[in-house]
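Quick review question:
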């Protein structure tokens, strides 16, 4: 689990996905294994179905059990996943990390018919809604002290954020019929429509750096990509248009070889170093969806370029 991972007080590490490999020392460490594992489960389900590899679905189940083992079963924080991320040793759970782990559970439940995984995701949504949701602002608090049972403020990127990640509240609504989940998703989407800057992105929210004037490579994916689900749930064209603007942001941010820098300014200037392979991967996924949604070939060409980028 590495030095950083050793400070994360998880109940179990069985099934956790590794992260943070350092080539210089040839060592692995762990950075928020909950959401990384949740996203890995989602990828394994998709790969299993696309390539006809049932053994990968079995691996997805193995890794999903790690998430279920690290979910609070009862008490006032029942449903919370232990999404420790940026502050190892302090037992702060990131709301964003909880939400980013759930689509994998929903997808695995759909693929296997095992309702345990969807049920766990719904319980996590209920915890987020009752604990972190700020309905008057259309935002979520995002750094929860599990011992004091309160949110920590005054730390960069810990303030309220419009966490539409993976449209999981819409998925929860579709599975349960809970109109409150739909309301959370639509109110969050409205906040993002209001606060969009630059086009298709959100510089004024962390982990982008407003002071530094640079955008995070996965930001447009996290909040622009689920706008397509919002459009499908509402039929309102403005959400589809915002989705396409986020896809266009990736078209412009991609370099000639499909690379994407971690620090990109609103004017698409970049630092000299710091490629982010995850940015290229996010671009590929989103541009493929944009091509299917619009039929515009430039999105397909951009997706090919991003996918060819060496990892």
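Suggested answer, residue by residue:
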């Amino acid at each position: 689990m590495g030095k950083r991972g050793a400070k994360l007080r998880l109940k179990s590490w069985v099934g956790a996905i590794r992260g943070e490999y350092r080539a210089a020392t040839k060592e692995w460490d762990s950075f928020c294994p909950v959401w990384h594992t949740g996203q890995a489960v989602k990828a394994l389900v998709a790969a299993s179905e696309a390539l006809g590899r049932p053994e990968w679905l079995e691996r997805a189940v193995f890794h999903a059990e790690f998430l279920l083992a690290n979910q609070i079963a009862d008490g006032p924080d029942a449903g919370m996943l232990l999404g420790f991320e940026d502050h190892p040793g302090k037992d702060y759970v990131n709301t964003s990390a909880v939400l980013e782990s759930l689509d994998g559970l929903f997808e695995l439940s759909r693929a296997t018919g095992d309702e345990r995984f969807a049920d766990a995701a719904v319980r996590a949504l209920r915890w987020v809604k009752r604990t972190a949701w700020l309905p008057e602002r259309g935002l979520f608090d995002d750094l929860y002290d599990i011992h004091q049972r309160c949110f920590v403020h005054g730390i960069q990127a810990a303030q309220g954020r419009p966490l539409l990640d993976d449209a999981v509240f819409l998925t929860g609504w579709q599975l349960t019929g809970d109109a409150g989940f739909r309301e959370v998703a639509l109110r969050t989407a409205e906040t993002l429509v209001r606060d969009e800057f630059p086009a298709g992105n959100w510089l004024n929210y962390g982990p982008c750096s407003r002071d530094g004037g640079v955008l995070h490579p996965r930001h447009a994916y996290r909040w622009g990509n689920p706008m397509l689900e919002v459009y499908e749930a509402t039929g309102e064209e403005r959400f589809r248009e915002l989705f396409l603007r986020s896809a266009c942001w990736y078209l412009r941010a991609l370099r000639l070889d499909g690379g994407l820098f971690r620090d990109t300014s609103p004017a698409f200037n970049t630092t000299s170093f710091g490629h982010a392979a995850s940015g290229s991967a996010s671009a590929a996924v989103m541009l493929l969806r944009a091509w299917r949604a619009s039929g515009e070939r430039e999105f397909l060409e951009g997706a090919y370029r991003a996918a060819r980028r060496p990892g």
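Why it works: The mean pLDDT is 94. The beta strands are 19-22, 27-29, 92-93, 133-134, 139-140, 144-145, 150-151.
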